Every structure is written in structure tokens, then in C-alpha cells.
């Protein structure tokens, strides 16, 4: 594996020179009891090939040593969420609202022209953010998601040649029209008809009918780590479960709801299934 650069994604020298001034990108890491994994998550951001990064960790009411671990990184902005989510867990003790408040809090404190996210129990390859920004510029997109692969310690500190991957997998690029059509397909007629009033209907009741949620198709690829232009957040934020138009079938899906909302409103989202995100999961890579 080797680091990507502008030429590897098909930029001419003229185009590459126009991007000499790299923007400040804010990376928001929501953390809740992640003392054993957050070090590798932070280090993968510190070592990114995109140099101008602002790394913000939002401690979401941790009860372990997460905050102490974060404070050991002098270059990281450490924030504490000053309130807790009273609906974090459902009646069965399942965390149904993980991280959405911490992400919004981080957005409010971010200074970057672009904002992205990193889960505190996952890792990114080192050219993840650089590749997303290059794709955003190339395709004039305000919202870029990439692909994932299962976490493997062998991949820590590595990069991926994005150009070679796209040459071998041209189908990895999903254009905005396809994503917007998927957003329309998965949006239930009830949410469209009632608008914000749909939030008055309890989620368990809405879940029982396709009137509110017509399809559970996931947002393409890695929905937890989009790169988003700052002005998008003037119109779109992460929402609590009862307000989500695109939740998951279990009622979580803050990422799914956010990404489909952006795709539906702005009509210029891009998904590139380049496996730059390392997810700690037993599921098979997409």
C-alpha cells in the first residue's frame, strides 16, 4: 500500500495546483467508555496525510478512563458533553441513541471548513481524509462517504492507493443521482405527508408499518465517517430517534438518518466504496 495523491485520483497538474491551500478539516470523535480503543482511533487521525486537521474528542459521559487517555494527547481538543441523553437506552438496555448528541456538540465547536467523524472504537487508514477531500473537489460534492473493511492490526498506520483501487473497481463510485433515488425510495410516505409531526408518533408504532419507513436499505458503504462541507450543518444535524426519517430497523440509525437527509436535501452526495475505514465488527466487509 502507498499513499494517494492528486494524480492518483485522476487530477491533472493544473487541477492539483489549484488545491495547494488545503482547508482545515475538523475530525469529531464521540467517545463513551472507550478507554481501551480510543488511542488507536486518535493516532490514526494524528497521522493522516491531510495535515491541516483539528481533532476534537467529545467525551459522552464516560465512566471509565476515556477522558484521561484523551488528555494525554496535547494536540487533541478534549471536550466534555455537558448533558446526557435521557433516552440513550431502550427498555431492554440497548443503546439506541449512541453519539448523536456528542456529534452535534462537536459540530458546534468545530472550526474547520469541512467536518468528518471517527468512531472511538475504530481506525482509519492514513489517507482516508485526503482521499475524501480529493473526491469532494473532483466531483463538486459537499458530502462524501467511503468504504470499510474489518479491523486488522496489520493495517494500522497503512495507506491505500485509491487510484489503483478505482481502476480495478470502477463500480465503487456511486453518483449522487443513485444516492438521491435511494433516499427517496427509503423515505416513508407518512414522514413526507406529516412532515415534522411524524415525530409525535412513537417509533415502535411507526416501525410496524411501511407507511412511515418504506425500506430498511442501508446508506451505502461507511455511513459513520462522511466528509461534509461546513455549510451543510446549517440545515442538517443528527436527530434523536423520534425525529429520524431514516432510522435503522432497531431504532438507532443516527448516521443513516443524517446521510440520507443530506443526500435528499443537497442532491450532490458521493459514495466511493474504497475501504479506507477499519471497523471492529464480525460482519464481512462490503
Q: Key terms for this structure?
A:
286 residues, alpha/beta, 10 helices, globular, disordered N terminus
Topology:
Blueprint: H1 13-17, E1 25-31, H2 38-46, E2 53-59, H3 66-71, E3 77-80, H4 100-109, E4 114-117, E5 123-124, H5 128-138, E6 143-150, H6 162-168, E7 173-174, H7 176-186, H8 189-194, H9 203-207, E8 227-229, H10 254-266, E9 269-279
Parallel strand pairs: 1-2, 1-4, 2-3, 6-9
Antiparallel strand pairs: 4-8, 5-9, 6-8, 7-9
Task: Report on the architecture of this protein.
Helices cover 29% and strands 17% of the residues. It has 10 helices and 9 strands. The chain has helices spanning 13-17, 38-46, 66-71, 100-109, 128-138, 162-168, 176-186, 189-194, 203-207, 254-266, and strands at 25-31, 53-59, 77-80, 114-117, 123-124, 143-150, 173-174, 227-229, 269-279. It is globular. α7 (176-186) packs across α10. Strands 1, 2, 3, 4, 5, 6, 7, 8 and 9 form a 9-stranded mixed sheet that branches. It is α/β, with parallel strands linked by helices and 286 residues long.
Radius of gyration: 19 Å
Mean pLDDT across the residues is 90
What structural category do the secondary elements indicate? alpha/beta
Order of helices and strands: HEHEHEHEEHEHEHHHEHE
**Looking at the structure, what is the overall shape?**
globular
Number of strands: 9
In angstroms, what separates the terminal alpha carbons? 19 Å
Number of helices: 10
Uncertain residue segments: 1-8, 10-18
Report the β-strand fraction as a percent range: 15-25%
Largest sheet: 9 strands, mixed
Helix content: 25-40%
Amino acid at each position: 500500500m502507498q499513499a494517494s495523491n492528486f494524480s492518483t485520483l485522476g487530477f491533472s497538474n493544473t487541477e492539483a495546483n489549484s488545491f495547494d491551500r488545503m482547508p482545515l478539516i475538523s475530525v469529531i470523535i464521540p467517545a463513551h467508555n472507550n478507554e481501551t480503543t480510543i488511542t488507536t482511533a486518535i493516532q490514526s487521525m494524528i497521522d493522516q496525510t491531510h495535515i491541516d486537521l483539528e481533532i476534537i474528542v467529545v467525551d459522552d459521559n464516560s465512566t471509565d478512563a476515556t477522558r484521561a487517555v484523551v488528555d494525554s494527547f496535547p494536540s487533541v481538543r478534549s471536550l466534555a458533553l455537558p448533558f446526557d441523553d435521557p433516552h440513550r437506552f431502550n427498555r431492554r438496555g440497548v443503546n439506541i441513541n449512541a453519539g448523536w448528541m456528542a456529534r452535534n456538540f462537536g459540530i458546534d465547536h468545530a472550526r474547520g471548513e469541512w467536518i468528518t467523524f471517527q468512531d472511538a472504537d475504530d481506525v482509519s487508514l492514513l489517507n482516508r481524509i485526503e482521499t475524501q477531500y480529493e473526491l469532494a473537489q473532483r466531483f463538486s460534492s459537499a458530502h462524501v462517504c467511503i468504504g470499510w473493511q474489518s479491523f486488522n492490526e496489520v493495517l494500522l498506520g497503512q495507506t491505500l492507493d485509491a487510484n489503483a483501487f478505482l481502476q480495478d473497481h470502477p463500480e465503487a463510485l456511486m453518483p449522487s443521482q443513485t444516492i438521491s433515488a435511494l433516499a427517496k425510495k427509503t423515505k416513508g410516505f407518512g414522514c413526507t405527508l406529516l412532515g415534522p409531526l411524524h415525530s409525535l408518533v412513537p417509533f415502535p408504532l411507526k416501525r410496524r408499518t411501511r407507511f412511515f419507513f418504506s425500506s430498511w436499505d442501508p446508506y451505502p458503504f461507511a455511513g459513520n465517517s462522511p466528509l461534509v462541507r461546513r455549510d451543510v450543518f446549517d440545515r442538517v444535524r443528527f436527530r434523536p430517534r423520534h425525529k429520524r426519517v431514516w432510522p435503522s430497523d432497531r431504532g438507532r440509525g443516527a448516521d443513516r438518518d443524517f446521510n440520507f437527509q443530506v443526500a435528499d436535501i443537497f442532491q450532490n452526495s458521493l459514495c466511493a466504496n474504497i475501504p479506507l475505514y477499519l471497523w471492529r465488527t464480525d460482519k464481512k466487509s462490503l
